[in-house]
């Protein structure tokens, strides 16, 4: 199987349905839940629900916390200027780590299986599955 082979339409449909239920559960808990494409341009931040269409073990439904654009831009500007000891970095890390933990707890409570996605490129990514799996 090719590393970039997409899952079949039935599997993609199941993932879309799961992603919708995940987004609804997060919204019910008070999160701003963003769809992977349409809301991604939002500056508000929140729980970004992603669907990876790959057929292999990397595919599935994922959730990642995104901070508000103002915090993101401040961190980027400080990094660009070499001001890496600024307190904003600690704040950014604090928010990201705690929202990751909180999203896992909320999704587990809502009946999903939510675990670390084990993605080195996105260390605070959450993999979400139906609990029955």
From TrEMBL:
Q: What is this protein called?
A: Uncharacterized protein
Instruction: Please report the organism this UniProt entry assigns to the protein.
Output: Streptomyces edwardsiae
Q: What is the lineage of its organism?
A: Bacteria, Bacillati, Actinomycetota, Actinomycetes, Kitasatosporales
């Amino acid at each position: 199987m090719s590393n970039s082979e997409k899952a079949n339409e039935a599997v993609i449909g199941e993932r879309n349905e799961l992603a919708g239920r995940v987004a609804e559960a997060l919204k019910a808990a008070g999160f701003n839940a963003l769809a992977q494409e349409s809301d991604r341009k939002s500056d508000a931040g929140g729980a970004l629900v992603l669907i990876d269409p790959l057929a292999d073990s990397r595919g599935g439904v994922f959730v990642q916390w995104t901070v508000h654009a103002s915090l993101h831009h401040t961190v980027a500007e400080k990094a660009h200027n070499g001001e890496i000891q600024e307190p904003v970095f600690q704040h950014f890390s604090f928010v990201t780590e705690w929202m990751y933990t909180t999203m896992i707890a909320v999704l587990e409570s809502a009946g999903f299986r939510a675990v670390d996605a084990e993605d080195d490129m996105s260390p605070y990514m959450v993999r979400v599955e139906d609990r029955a799996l």
